[in-house]
Amino acid sequence: MHTTTTSCLTKLNYSAPEWIAEPLNSNQIIHSVFQQINGTNYMYTTFSGMPGRFCVYDLDERKLISSFETTGGKNTWIHKIDSKGIVYFISDCYFFSFNPYTAVFKKYGTYFPGETGNFVMDIDENDYLYIGSYPHAKIIRFDTKTEMFEDLGTVDSDAQYVRSIACHNGYIYAGTFGNDVAKLYRIHAENPKEKKCIPLPFIEGYFCPEELNWIYTMNMADDLLMLHVKIKNRSLLLVYDTKREQFADVGFRGELKGLYTSVPYCHKTYFISDCKLWELDTRSLKWSDCGIEMKENDELCASGWLNLKILYPDEKALIITGHGNCTPTALYPNRKEYHSIILPRMDRSKFLIQCMENGGEDDIYLSSYAGNIAVRYDLKKRVFEDISIGQIEGSIFYHGKQYFGVYPHAWLYEYDCHHLQTSDNPKNLGRVEAMQDRPFALEAADGKIFIGTIPYYGLHNGCLCIYDVESGQKKSFPGLIKNQSIISLAYHNGRLYGSTSVHGGLGSVPVEKEAKIFCYDPETEQFLAQATLHLPNDKKALHIGQIKFDTEGRLWAVSGYTLFRLHPETLEQMEQLSFGEYPYNVHQHVWRPTYIRFDQNGYLYTNIKGIKIINPETLEFVDLQAYTGNNVPLFTIGSDQNLYYSIDAKLYKISICKEEE
Asked: Is the pTM of this model over 0.85?
């Protein structure tokens, strides 16, 4: 144990960091591709994780052939195969290829400087790959022959995303998004400056362009551009006839389940809706029920056509995978048959830790980024218990239950660790509010759970929601702080305190210039005070991290690299402790609060440049940066009074105790 002695902290003993585990195991895929080589049927897919893992499966023998780490990449949304059978894919702007004939896996590194996100890619008849990017809404072309990248430029200067893309007959079709506006473009591949914005159709009772959230994904089915669009959190299907250069209303009024319609075969494309497989004839534009009942969790996120030896070798099967575990499904539309292809599990990758919060039973809860799992860590037994749940953004313990705010669409869940996990444990308590997405801020008091949210993609107004534990009723206040997200909440003496970020949902550009702190009376639904922060060098705070009361009733807040003490009545600044200038950036979304925690001695912990331990009486501090590193996104103080923190997928512990006087 190392001992630090200061006039404020007396004698504080702390150990070197102890690695505990990488507790969040990934078995999740998003996309796959399929092909037959020398009579053998293969599936190529990438498991999400830190890092991800590209896998080659033999579908005939149902075995894993090989796997490779996708260094730098966590999530892979798309794979493509060129005319030579080489597989290409992108993962968090890292570019990779796999040659199935030589078994060579190639890492190209990041595909273009300045771009940080990607979800879509397509390949044309000349083996050029086209990648849609974020945050500059670019299209990047990759020549598979020369292995060179080329920037084709920003599609729309008002957009941040090229979120969907498809190639056909010398044109690139791109769905852009930015400033709460989604557009569809047709771009000439050889002359990218030649582009046309295609107006979207009004389909009575189904689709209104003014209500469009995303042109989320798209794919070609012969000459038809199949657009998966999102409107009010519903996933709809639009069909654009590229020959006639007009939208065709095929009469479908349902919702798509998954990301795409299938690869076409014999002038038919298939999709899942309402737990059924549907067929669309690409010539007659007639759609029909295939007579195959799909499982509730089935999605069509990837597809291919193969003659499977294990079933009907002389007949093509439609092979699909969804967004989840690695279990492809073989569908025979003519036979009306459904077959799951069970594959062996691989050594799992590890999910990034997305949320860390105390429970009330000597435990800590951790959840995964872009995953479907959380864990409860028992501090006494030092064991992990898996919990099947989506991406948790915020969590809090209250009256024997753990409450989770889950992305996407801002769901609230309740979990009782004393009972077995069932379809009702964790229990879904419903959505916080329509058009909200990420519930980062949770607080609990007086029989209520208070939830603060970040809105849906492209929107600006976050929400306050109050859930009554006894009655199960929710009351929501969208736009409580206009054009801002609520990222932290605290409750004291009947008053609710909150802090905000000027950043709304992804793809939005901030409207307001400064984040706020507010004091709110939930009984009268009236503001008692609002304030902004005065930062060193007169900078404006674009986001204000966690706000919290200590045991003496003092109110604390943090923004950037500065800690503040505020008057709880007026929110006036009383004291501040700065650790340098913080580079606020209007283009970089910041929602996760810089945290404030208190131990049983009353010491304040905050993750400013590592971890600082501060005496709130004198503002003297101990700096643990030499032990934790500079970037600690998540930490908490366990019931054992030790410090727990995460770096990427890893959980660490620093044992801390106060020397007896």
From this structure: yes
